[in-house]
């Protein structure tokens, strides 16, 4: 395994830790309402934050705000890296079949089986009849089928299908994206500006029309109205870098991006301020007295997202190319952990509601137990052929992409 591949494998392990931490602290945000909305009451805000605890810490708000800016975008970018080599090796038909088994089937199983179990505690918070039968009646009466974090899977499947169509009908597009990525290793700043500009075109108009926070749901298919095109930009940026070769160019462990990680740290901090300051002013109604403040916040989000992605890539390329048995296992288990962790998060947050513990202590308990339980469950599932078939391992994907 090359140094870049090893760094990306360790980065995948780190990303799943951040996902688990993000969901683990949501119940303890300082900005949450005083009490939880009823299970049957629109707009069903518990889809975003299932459990609302009375213990709060504002530091979690800052942590989640930063993660919300870049994290899912980064996951789409990383997901695109190995798509073009896989298409070249398998062809579009076999690739799509594999993607359906890898993404589509787990999405259906997770939404139909795991999400009702994960959201049962939300119903129990205010339930008159706590039985599963009563919950199931209320669940079936909802106008939507909540999918939790599994929305990522169906959007990623759509983008993979689009990539397969491009490979089949416009094969030269991969070469074009690879050429755009070719100079990124020597001039990451210029590539950053191009990516941020494309992201702004994809994101800002939709953010103006729909606001940055608005979600919609059609059955189990939920998505944030301002971000689908933006996610597509980063997915195809990752596809282009993968088509050029992850061992060279932008993601070279010896490249300028890795060597200038400290500069990207400063850029990530500055980019976050460019977003959070105008956003905070808008939330305090300053947007009514300062023209264009909301637009400034939208462009700040674009910059913060790009700098956050570049910073974490740079740090792991510079320092993360070391073999670790723990990170190897985490990386291989990351996908399964993503599928199952939400059940453990919500149930643990619910079970801790009656304990008078500081928010930091509760969040630490939820994160630690969720990590152990979801990790252990994934390792156990992969011991069975069917589980290994659906979940796979990232180590194999990285090895094939060398």
Strand content: under 5%
What's the number of structural domains? Answer: 1
Distance between the termini: 7 Å
H and E string:
HHHHHHHHEEHHHHHHHH
Largest sheet: 2 strands, antiparallel
Helical/strand content category: mainly alpha
Would you tell me the overall average pLDDT? 92
Tally of individual helices:
16
Q: What's the β-strand tally?
A: 2
Strand order of the largest sheet: 1-2
Outline: globular
Rg, Å, rounded:
21 Å
Which spans have pLDDT < 50 for at least 5 consecutive residues?
A: 393-402
Helix content: over 70%
Summary, kept brief:
This protein has one domain. The chain is an all-alpha fold and 402 residues long.
Structure description:
- With 402 residues, the chain is mainly α.
- The protein has one domain (3-401).
- The chain contains 16 helices and two strands.
- The protein has helices spanning 3-25, 58-80, 83-90, 92-126, 132-141, 151-169, 172-182, 188-210, 228-244, 256-259, 261-283, 293-319, 325-351, 359-381, 385-391, 394-401, and strands at residues 215-218, 221-224.
- The protein has a two-stranded antiparallel ribbon with strand order 1-2.
- Strand 1 and strand 2 (221-224) form a beta hairpin.
- Helix 1 (3-25) packs parallel to helix 13 (325-351), helix 1 crosses helix 14 (359-381) and helix 11 runs antiparallel to helix 12.
- The relative contact order is 0.17.
């Amino acid at each position: 395994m090359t140094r870049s591949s090893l760094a990306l494998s360790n980065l995948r392990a780190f990303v799943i830790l951040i996902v688990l931490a993000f969901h683990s602290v949501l119940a303890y945000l300082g900005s949450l309402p005083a009490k939880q909305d009823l299970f049957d009451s629109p707009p069903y805000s518990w889809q975003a934050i299932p459990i609302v605890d009375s213990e709060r810490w504002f530091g979690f708000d800052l942590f989640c705000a930063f993660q919300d800016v870049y994290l899912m975008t980064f996951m789409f970018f990383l997901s695109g890296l190995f798509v073009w080599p896989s298409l070249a090796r398998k062809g579009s038909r076999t690739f799509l079949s594999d993607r359906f088994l890898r993404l589509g089937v787990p999405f259906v199983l997770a939404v139909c089986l795991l999400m009702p179990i994960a959201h049962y505690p939300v119903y129990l918070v205010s339930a008159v009849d706590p039985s599963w039968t009563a919950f199931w009646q209320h669940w079936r009466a909802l106008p939507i089928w909540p999918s939790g974090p599994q929305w990522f899977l169906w959007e990623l499947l759509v983008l993979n299908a689009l990539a397969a169509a491009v490979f089949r009908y416009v094969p030269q597009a991969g070469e074009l994206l690879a050429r755009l990525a070719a100079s990124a290793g020597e001039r990451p700043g210029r590539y950053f500006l191009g990516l941020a500009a494309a992201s702004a075109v994809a994101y800002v108009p939709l953010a103006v029309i729909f606001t940055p926070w608005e979600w919609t749901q059609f059955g189990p298919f939920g998505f944030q109205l301002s971000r689908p095109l933006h996610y597509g930009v980063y997915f195809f940026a990752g596809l282009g870098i993968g088509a050029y070769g992850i061992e060279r160019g932008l993601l070279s462990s010896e490249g300028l991006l890795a060597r200038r990680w400290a500069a990207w740290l400063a850029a990530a901090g500055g980019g976050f301020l460019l977003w959070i300051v105008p956003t905070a002013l808008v939330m305090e109604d300053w947007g009514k007295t300062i023209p264009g403040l909301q637009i400034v916040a939208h462009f700040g989000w674009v910059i913060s997202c790009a700098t956050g992605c570049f910073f974490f890539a740079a740090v792991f390329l510079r320092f993360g190319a070391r073999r670790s048995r723990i990170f190897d296992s985490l990386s291989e288990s990351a996908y399964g952990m993503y599928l199952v962790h939400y059940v453990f998060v919500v149930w643990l947050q619910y079970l801790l509601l009656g304990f008078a513990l500081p928010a930091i202590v509760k969040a630490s308990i939820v994160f630690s137990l969720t990590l152990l339980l979801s990790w252990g469950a994934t390792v156990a599932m992969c011991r069975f052929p069917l589980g290994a078939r659906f979940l796979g391992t990232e180590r194999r994907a990285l090895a094939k992409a060398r």
